[in-house]
Amino acid sequence: MQAFLQEVGSTLAEDAPGLSVEALARQMNVAGGPTESPWPKNVGLLFFNDTPERFFPAVQIDVVWFPEGAGGDRFEEKIFKGPLARMTREALSYIQRNFLRETVIKHPDRAEATRVWNFPYAAIEEALVNAVYHRSYEEREPIEVRISNEELVILSFPGPDRSIRLEDFQAGRAVSRRYRNRRIGEFLKELDLTEGRSTGIPKILKVMAANGSPAPLFESDEDRLSFVIRLPCHPLARPVPPKVTGEVAPEVTPEVAPEVVRVVLALQEELSRTGLQQALDLKDEKHFRKAYLLPALASGLVEMTRPETPRSSKQRYRRTRLGQRWLETHQGNSAY
To answer: How far is the CA of 322 from the CAs of 46, 108, 153, 166, 335, in angstroms?
Structure first.
């Protein structure tokens, strides 16, 4: 408790060494009960007990690596336990050291290289802290982080409050009318692990867009029994077999589907969704979105002009710098 007070810069830190454990816990509001029979509050056991899993089974974070993908036969697992703040930080540090990598794409016509991360750390931090904050500590299920070359998935139980619509998550405007584990949120906020103002989801969307990554996905079931956050790997950061050619080209070249090529070619200027659909001469909006627009955004060659508000009436689509570079490289290719 004293270490926590010192870290957050509390004025109580100066008086803490002279207080008994009970007195300090009462001052921090992590203990209650009558003087003759004090008892720890749940938030105190979760943050200031070395083995909170004794009181709340499955208080842990399981990080699972699938080198062959989620459907493969091999996986590696590491389990993190302990007080919530320490457990969360250790899991984040482990993920950052072992699974995050930056891809540098050099261009023959300019000194500036393009740099992208397979998974931006800030998005992972927000997603994992969100799970620690909002999971139920009555559930006997751990938080699970599943990592493959294709995506990083964070699973927690239960799902979001029913007052929040899933489409609001995708739009970045999810605001809960009720906060689960408000005291946990207060401690996480003091440790600068969360802001506690429904800013986590918008930040995940913003960070993923800034990295040029495909948009994250937020999933739950009808009964809100679980919550899944999927962070897709940046297309240019996925492991690809080396190609030997006689031409000077960027070190990483994405494979581009014909539908995505059509989108890139059509974006001679910024276009609205309707304008882009008309430019492609496509009648079915659902087919256009599923087969053309979403794959184009996922490829990293096309981006939104307003990624923080995907459903904005002023939303437009344009080529990214990578998209423009790809077009210049392949424009003379008869296959396109």
So the answer is: 46, 13, 26, 31, 19
